[in-house]
Design goal:
single chain, about 160 residues, mainly alpha, about 60% helix
Length: about 160
């Protein structure tokens, strides 16, 4: 696997689909048009799992939560602290959205950012908050950093599940 293959994967799938699709929906919402806030939230949570698999080198069955947690930490300190506090963000958010189309428990999903410090937070009374635009900002920064890291690593490879 060459750096060209890694670069192609990021340019086509990560920057071309993942980031471009969510950015388009955020731009629509900012313009006052209908936008897919739940679909964007679900997509970002699934993309988090995939990029964790890229970082860890596997997308194998049984690795989903570890992959998700790995990249979720890369989004920054507010995200890592949720995991450090013992929250099963993978189960509550990612699995909730993927399997029930709702975050498990009491939650609010917004498309555009407000004053929140992170895209995911839990209030003292237990309500979860997911701000798509804020999460997206952290996701894009972490994805671009990962791309740079992999391009600088002479031994970097995509997981076998992503090799063509």
């Amino acid at each position: 696997m060459s750096h060209n293959d890694i670069d192609s994967f990021f340019r086509e799938y990560v920057f071309g689909f993942m980031i471009a699709d969510v950015r388009r929906e955020i731009d629509r919402a900012a313009a006052g048009e209908s936008a897919g806030n739940f679909l964007c939230a679900l997509g970002l949570l699934c993309y988090t799992e995939v990029l964790g698999g890229v970082r860890r080198g596997t997308l194998a069955q049984g690795e989903s939560r570890a992959n998700f947690d790995s990249f979720f930490r890369e989004l920054g300190a507010p995200y890592a602290s949720l995991l450090d506090e013992g929250h099963n963000v993978y189960k509550l958010l990612r699995c909730g959205m993927a399997h029930e189309y709702l975050i498990k428990g009491v939650a609010t999903i917004s498309m555009l950012k407000g004053v929140e410090p992170a895209g995911v937070a839990v209030a003292p009374e237990g309500r979860w908050y997911f701000a798509v635009e804020r999460y997206f900002e952290a996701f894009e920064v972490a994805a671009r950093r990962m791309h740079s890291d992999l391009m600088a690593d002479a031994g970097a490879e995509l997981p076998s599940e992503l090799r063509h």
